[in-house]
Design goal:
By secondary structure, this protein is α/β, with parallel strands linked by helices. The protein contains 14 helices and 10 strands. It folds into 2 domains: 187 residues, Periplasmic binding protein-like II (D-Maltodextrin-Binding Protein, domain 2, 3-Layer(aba) Sandwich), CATH 3.40.190; 101 residues, 3-Layer(aba) Sandwich (D-Maltodextrin-Binding Protein, domain 2). Strand 6, helix 6 and strand 7 form a beta-alpha-beta unit.
Length: 330
């Protein structure tokens, strides 16, 4: 009996001592603010919702906040001002132009190659049902230097090459503003990225005039990139590497688990589409399109950059080596 009591007391004493020990320190989360041009789209909004829900950023030791900006030059301004550390899904035109003008920026990953995620629409009762129908008409993009701007400029060349009058590019800002502009007759065709407004296509309110995949020139061109301030990247190389690793892990999960991703998308974006439509929309984002490397079509991008006055001259190989650094991509 005495031995039993001694053991019991010893156990109580040990438990008491353990309870008094300080708790193991919780690993600090690295704070990261990322500029994104849209809160809902697959690659700019949904990816953060999935990463948060599945804990991919947290398990990597990152506390990621997003700031929504309008795209193109606004992404550059947000980054150069220091209000964000990384800017996502920014038109390659805009980043190259900023670099040539002296902005301390560094491209750390590709974001979208081709424009298969975009489509252009018109009012349902309009005669604009295909790309050629928009000859001489106003065609919307978001902001100068954005991927939608690159797409419209390439579309203009494609129409002109058929001997038709050139469409007129019109900058109308964010996608909801573009939709309003189309409904009020400020342009004949507006743009959207899937799955936005697909419910309105299904209901017959608007019709698809042409899809991004029809723009031949951009099929193998990286139109959007992810970039950061050069000095910040040099000082925080491991954070950059960790972010891109977690981002890629989230991409892989989304493509491999489309039903679950579709449900998260509908819930996160408050989308008025069916789960089947959301799954179909995920199909627009192929592994090749959203690959983080390589950055393709640089010669084409620079040629158009000079042609449309985003660049004063093509960047040299030394310029490109300083601008583009893909060492951090997993």
């Amino acid at each position: 009996m005495k031995r039993f009591v001694t053991l019991s007391l010893t156990g109580v004493t040990l438990l008491s001592l353990v309870a008094l020990l300080p708790a193991a320190p919780v690993a600090a989360q690295t704070k990261l603010v990322v500029a994104s041009p849209h809160a809902v789209l697959f690659d700019t909004g949904l990816i953060f919702a999935v990463a948060k829900e599945k804990g991919f950023f947290k398990e990597a030791g990152l506390d990621v906040d997003t700031v929504i900006v309008a795209g193109g030059g606004e992404n550059v301004q947000a980054l150069v001002s220091g209000s964000v550390q990384i800017a996502l899904a920014t038109g390659t035109f805009a980043v190259m132009s900023a670099f040539q003008k002296g902005a301390p920026v560094k491209i750390i990953a590709a974001e979208m190659t081709g424009v298969s995620d975009l489509y252009w629409y018109s009012q349902a009762n309009s005669p604009y049902k295909k790309l050629e129908d928009l000859a001489g008409k106003r065609v919307a993009f978001s902001n100068p230097g954005s991927s939608s701007h690159m797409a419209v400029l390439a579309m203009v060349d494609q129409v002109k090459a058929k001997g038709l009058p050139a469409p007129q590019p019109v900058s109308l800002g964010r996608m909801p503003d573009v939709f309003t502009a189309i409904k009020t007759g400020q342009a004949e065709a507006g743009f959207a990225a899937v799955p936005l407004f697909l419910d309105r296509v299904d209901s017959g309110e608007i019709q698809i005039a042409f899809k991004g995949e029809e723009i031949e020139k951009l099929k193998d061109v990286t139109v959007r990139v992810t970039f950061a301030q050069r000095e910040w990247v040099d000082k925080n190389a491991e954070t950059v590497r960790t972010f891109l690793r977690a981002y890629k892990k989230t991409q892989d999960f989304m493509l491999a688990n489309r039903q679950e991703t579709a449900r998260i998308w509908i819930r996160h974006g408050k989308l008025k589409i069916s789960e089947a439509t959301a799954v179909k929309a995920i199909g627009f984002y192929t592994p090749e399109a959203i690959a983080l490397k390589p950055i393709k079509g640089l010669a084409t991008t620079m040629e158009d950059g000079v042609k449309f006055k985003f660049l004063s001259k093509p960047l040299t190989q030394d310029d490109l080596d300083r601008l583009i650094d893909l060492r951090y991509v997993p």
